[in-house]
Write a structure and sequence with these properties.
Order of helices and strands: HHHEHEHEHEHEHEHEEHEEEH
Helix content: 40-55%
Number of helices: 11
Strand content: 15-25%
Shape: elongated
Low-confidence stretches: 225-235
Length: 317
């Protein structure tokens, strides 16, 4: 885009130069080659005699500074800064850290766990090879390191030799590799998050001490709701981790959440609970998008502590 703008500006200057040369009766300079020479060098034996021409010269020189600055920022400064930032991505935890939890992979479920860890003053570190994600976590002051979670050196950089627990939270295939690598450290307690419950036994074969299927838990929760009509859709809660529950919240007509996107709800801190699924027009999604809007017929599946969920419940009415 920058290159296109620069070329269009240069062509415009050439036409204006030729037009002003004709007006000043300097016909010997009114040609594209001379115009190109003048516009790119702005010095030499070609000069304007009229006030309009001199004003044009000033404009060209000032805009030239802007164009050169833009070029430097786009093609020199920005790539250099990106290299510096990439070089400075955290790659190793501090030497003194111990009894911490290593979380391989980051998503909404991990966000909920982080809230719990912070409340309980439990040390943890996120490990991921996604540069943009690590930059975002660094910006949010969330402990993290950059690297492949299935790489032994990366796990050593995460302090696995002094850690108390590792959570593998990538795809099932990646989790198997992470578990196999982490199992080289016999003391390590390993929890694997499984997407497809049929892969549970393979993760256990790889060496996972515990295999957790959030989707299965959500499914059991929803099935329980569907079968037990005597249980309130709002107050019923299923505990998926210690102190962490999942609850289903219908949205009522006067709810202040109606018309807001899930991103707005998160950014404006309406609640600390994490929305991990939605019902819309009878369709269940466990992968809600940030731009999804809350509507009158929406039902939210939220994960959090009882206090966080109670706050969200009040906002649904």
């Amino acid at each position: 885009m920058y290159r296109i703008v620069a070329v269009l500006v240069l062509i415009t200057y050439i036409f204006i130069f030729e037009y002003l040369m004709i007006l000043e009766n300097q016909l010997e300079n009114a040609d594209p080659i001379t115009a190109l020479y003048w516009a790119t060098s702005t010095y030499g034996n070609v000069a304007f005699n009229s006030p309009a021409g001199r004003l044009f010269s000033v404009i060209v020189q000032l805009s030239g500074i802007v164009l050169i600055s833009g070029f430097l920022v786009t093609y020199v400064v920005t790539p250099w800064v990106d290299r510096i930032i990439k070089f400075r991505l955290p790659r190793k935890v501090s030497v003194g850290i111990k009894d911490h939890i290593i979380i391989c992979g980051y998503n909404q479920l991990v966000e909920t766990l982080i809230d719990e860890f912070n409340e309980e003053d439990i040390l943890f570190v996120i490990v991921d090879e996604d540069e943009e994600l690590i930059r975002e976590l660094v910006y949010k002051n969330i402990p993290c390191i950059f690297g492949s979670p299935s790489d032994k050196q990366t796990l050593m950089n995460a302090g696995i030799e002094k850690a108390r627990l590792l959570i593998a939270n990538k795809s099932d295939e990646r989790n198997a590799n992470i578990v196999l690598t982490a199992r080289e450290f016999p003391h390590m307690n390993i929890i694997a998050i499984v997407e497809d419950q049929s892969n549970t036994r393979y993760l256990k074969y790889a060496g996972a001490d515990t295999v957790v299927s959030p989707k299965s838990m959500f499914g059991q929760f929803i099935g329980k709701k569907a079968m037990d009509r005597l249980v309130s859709r709002v107050t019923g809660a299923t505990e998926i981790f210690d102190g962490v529950h999942i609850v289903e919240f219908p949205i009522y007509l006067k709810s202040p959440l109606i018309g807001k996107s899930l991103k707005e709800i998160s950014n404006q801190h309406f609640t600390s609970a994490k929305i991990v699924g939605t019902w819309n027009s009878g369709t269940l999604s466990f992968d809600p998008k940030e731009e999804d809007l809350v509507r009158e017929n929406t039902v939210l599946l939220a994960v959090g502590t009882r206090e966080e969920l109670s706050k969200l419940k009040r906002l649904t009415h």
